[in-house]
Design brief:
By secondary structure, the protein is an alpha+beta fold. It contains two helices and three strands, in the order E-E-E-H-H. A three-stranded antiparallel beta sheet has the order 1-2-3, with helices on one face.
C-alpha cells in the first residue's frame, strides 16, 4: 500500500503489483485505515486466486472445465498412494 490519502469521507491508496503490472489505484467511499487493509486483503486474495488458476491450467490444461476435472481426477488417482487419499 502506497500513497495513502484521506479526502473528507473517502480514502485513496495505491497497491503495488509485481513486475510489469501497473499500479492499482483504489478509492473507498469510507474512511479508516482498517478499511484500507480490508480492501488490500481482497486485492491480495484475488491476485492469489488468479495465480492458482494459472498454475492449475498450466499443470492440467484442457479447453473445457470437464476436461480439466477429468485430468485432475486421473492425477489424484495416480498420486493417491503418495498422498494417502
Amino acid at each position: 500500500i502506497t500513497h495513502l490519502r484521506r479526502e473528507q469521507m473517502r480514502t485513496r491508496f495505491d497497491v503495488q503489483r509485481p513486475e510489469s503490472q501497473p499500479t492499482l489505484s483504489v478509492e473507498l467511499n469510507i474512511p479508516g485505515v482498517h478499511n484500507v487493509l480490508n480492501a488490500a486483503a481482497v486485492v491480495a486474495e484475488h491476485a492469489a486466486a488468479l495465480e492458482l488458476a494459472g498454475a492449475l491450467l498450466e499443470k492440467f490444461g484442457g479447453d473445457t472445465l470437464a476436461e480439466i476435472k477429468e485430468r485432475v481426477r486421473l492425477w489424484r488417482k495416480k498420486t493417491a498412494k503418495f498422498t494417502g487419499r
